[in-house]
Amino acid sequence: MCSHSPEPAGPSGVVRVVVLVKQVPAVTQVSVDEVTGNLLRAGVRSVMNPYDLFALEAALRLRDSEVARVTAVSMGPPKAREVLKYALALGVDDAVLLTDQAFAGSDTWATSAVLQAAVRRLGPEVILCGRQAIDGDTGQVPLELAVRLSVPCVTRVLAIEAVDRETVVVRRRVEGFEEVVESVVPAVLTVEEKSCTPRLPTLEGISVVGGRRPVVFGARELGLDPADVGSLGSPTRVVSVRPALPAGGGIILEGSPETQVRELVRRLNDAGCFAPHPGEA
Ligand code: FAD
Fold first, then answer.
1. Nearest CA to ligand 1 atom 13
2. Which domain range does residue 87 map to?
3. Which of ligand 1's atoms lies nearest the C-alpha of 51?
4. Domain count of the chain?
5. Is residue 50 assigned to a domain?
6. Are 78 and 198 in contact (CB under 8 A)?
7. What pLDDT sits at residue 138?
8. Is residue 105 part of a domain?
9. Is residue 248 part of a domain?
10. Ligand 1 centre and the CA of 55: distance in Å?
11. In this predicted structure, what is the pLDDT of residue 245?
12. 127: Cβ–Cβ under 8 A, 6 or more apart, which residues?
């Protein structure tokens, strides 16, 4: 399944960065399998998870300053190759697709098991992720990956200020202010949305990518037991899915404050919101 492996580590002084990118449906209205609760993705146009574009841009900026070698990695069906080709057109050095029938039905924990095996194999100092995926929407994968790898996870990163093969220094967003954090590497970083303006592919990038194909790893290449991934390795399952109820329209009460309060009390009373006092009939 695997054609050739990307280099496992950068030459001295160059850090290896892995960017995790996910392919997601391009639409918000997708159908759901009533039995499994999984999204039905067949026939739906797919794109790169928009949040991952910010992680890619952060990685490419390191590459532009010649401090990093960047590999984009995606787990998904064979057509997830498309997002990796987009990453190659943007300028990443290598791309790796993690695909195997055994991965189907993975929940976030099983997804992180596959990603962990790939990260172990590639040996990066920095693993960059988007803030969350717009379809699964959990934001759990980066944290689960960090737990599995036993490495720190720094979230909401706005910029990578410095990185070498010992530490990474990042600026991150916290409620109402920004803080600068230094972490040992390897580390998982989630990149904040709108932290930068993601670049677009150049014509040259698009023509160069024509002849390049992502490397493909399956369960065997990653040394994974099928029982630990896919639906077998997933401790959670979707019990039911239903459309969220639209919020009800509000009403505006008119008149003096006393009139408005009387009207509000009447409406609440009519709606049965007041429990009778003890002893009241
Ligand atoms: P988040 O945690 O929100 O993503 C955060 C970041 O992690 C992303 O920005 C990205 O950088 C990284 N990331 C997340 N997922 C990937 C990935 N796949 N590759 C690379 N980087 C990634 N989904 C399917 O496509 N097919 C299935 O058959 C399927 N079956 C499921 C079965 C169950 C029981 C459950 C609970 C979920 C299933 N899913 C399936 C959904 C799948 O588990 C999630 O989409 C996936 O684990 C990522 O979670 P998330 O979308 O919430 O990502």
1. 22
2. 15-228
3. 9
4. 1
5. yes
6. no
7. 95
8. yes
9. no
10. 16
11. 76
12. 17, 18, 19, 20, 119, 142, 145, 149, 151, 186, 187, 188, 189
Tokens of 276: 């009778």
The residue ranking higher by pLDDT, 102 or 4, is 102
Question: 258: part of which helix (H) or strand (E)?
Answer: helix 257-270
Pull the structure tokens for residue 50: 């928009």
257-280 burial, b for 16+ CB within 10 Å, e for fewer?
eeeeeeeeeeeeeeeeeeeeeeee
**Which pair of structure tokens corresponds to residue 100?**
């195997």
Domain assignment present for 4: no
Provide the pLDDT confidence category of residue 9 given band limits of 50, 70 and 90: very low
As for ligand 1, residues whose beta carbon falls within 6 Å of it are 20-22, 38, 49, 51-52, 55, 74-76, 104-108, 111, 129-130, 132-133, 135-142, 234, 236-238
CA of 6 to the centre of ligand 1 (A): 24
Higher pLDDT: 132 or 243? It is: 132
Atom of ligand 1 nearest to the CA of 131: 9
For 16-49, the pLDDT digits (tens) are 999 999 999 986 666 777 777 677 767 778 999 9
Say what the pLDDT of residue 33 is: 74
Distance 280 CA to ligand 1 centre (A): 54
CATH number at residue 159: 3.40.50.620
Which residue has better confidence, 239 or 155? 155
pLDDT digits (tens, 9 = 90+) for 132-158: 999 989 999 999 999 999 999 999 999
Q: Whose CA is nearest to atom 18 of ligand 1?
A: 75
